[in-house]
Amino acid sequence: MGLKVSPRTSTSGSRFLAPSLAPPVSSPAPILLSASWGSVSVRRDRGAKITAITLANGHEWLVQADHEAGGCDADAAFIDAEVCGWDEIAPTLTSSGVRDHGEVWRGPWALLHLDERRLVLETRGERGQFVLRREIGMTVFGMRIDYAARSLRGEIPFLWMAHPQFRAPAGTVVRFSPHQDEWVEAFGPHPGESVSRGLPANPVECVAAGSGRKFWTRSGAAPRSMTVDHPNNASLTMTWEGPISDFALWIDNGWKASEPIVCPEPSTSFGDDVDVAAAAGRALVLTEHEWTRWQVQVDVRCLSDGLARG
Q1: 267 vs 223: CA distance, rounded Å
Q2: What's the pLDDT at 101?
């Protein structure tokens, strides 16, 4: 059961509310936001993970954990925790001295605002270098996610990356706008090799069972949206705006995830290591005096009234 909310938990009318000191999270109960099309569930105690994007008929978009999510070992790597849902990656994915997959995916986020259709959360990096805010607002056709980040220690290079793990059963079709033919393999059997003929309509088909692969588009050549069509006539489109210059696609064919997934990773910097990106002049830079903002829009639809559950 999701957390029951009061009509408002803040009196401020600003788009991003003033920071608050939230009490310790005492329950792993998800926060549930609802609209006519379905619902979104969030675990603010678990790095603000979006655990479910569920259509009104029960169709689930995000891969689910194969066990009850809870705490994990303090030193566990990201892929050895629960591989499910939608995580936030910042300020890097893999850099020396930084936790695997960044500093914000594990611990609780502070609650700034909550009502039936809007949720604003905030967190600070584990090393105290930045603050990141995220607002989810339910819309007629899906949800809009607004992000804002600023430095707490002068100018710092910053890599943010979305990490939604969408289910990709047999028959799934993935489309990019604009269409992407050129990719570079970052993880898999041929790291560093270019792919000039595009990926299969269902990218899972290019990944051996029980393994994973990751591809980047050319630096600065990120698509602006990705659409996932499921074989039972459900369709989801993810669009992004703002200083999102690069894009990667992670594909897991039953390796760490409980079922095949495609994971779009729009990013504010090129590559997995923000230090390498900064040295090449390819990293977003945060300052103390100005918020950097970007947005992600998720729209869902059913192409027929006979959409099956599952």
Answers
A1: 11
A2: 66
Residue 160: C-alpha distances to residues 90, 185, 274, 300 (Å): 5, 20, 9, 24
| Chain centroid to CA 6 | 27
Cα torsion 275, 87, 223, 167: sign: positive
Q: What is the pLDDT of residue 97?
A: 62
Which pTM does this prediction carry? 0.86
Structure tokens at 259: 């079922």
Pairing, β 130-138 against β 31-35:
unpaired
Render pLDDT for 26-43 as a digit per residue (tens, 0 to 9).
446 899 999 999 999 999
Whether the per-residue pLDDT at 10 is higher than 50: the answer is no
HSE-CB of 285 using CA atoms within 13 angstroms: 10
Q: Extract the tokens encoding 107.
A: 């611990």
User: How many angstroms separate the Cα of 286 from the Cα of each of 104, 109, 225, 246?
Assistant: 16, 20, 24, 17
Rounded-to-integer distance, Cα 286 and Cα 151, Å: 5
What is the Cα–Cα distance from 74 to 294, expressed in whole angstroms?
A: 31
Quick check: helix, strand or coil at residue 46? Answer: helix
Distance CA 140, CA 103 (A): 33
Gyration radius of the chain over CA positions: 19
Joined tokens for residue 143: 């949800």
Inter-residue contact 62 to 52 (CB < 8 Å): yes
User: Which tokens go with 130?
Assistant: 């930045």
Kindly report which listed range (150-154, 188-192, 271-275) carries the lowest average pLDDT score.
271-275
Helix (H, G, I), strand (E, B) or coil at 78: helix
Q: Find residue 289's DSSP bridge partners.
A: none
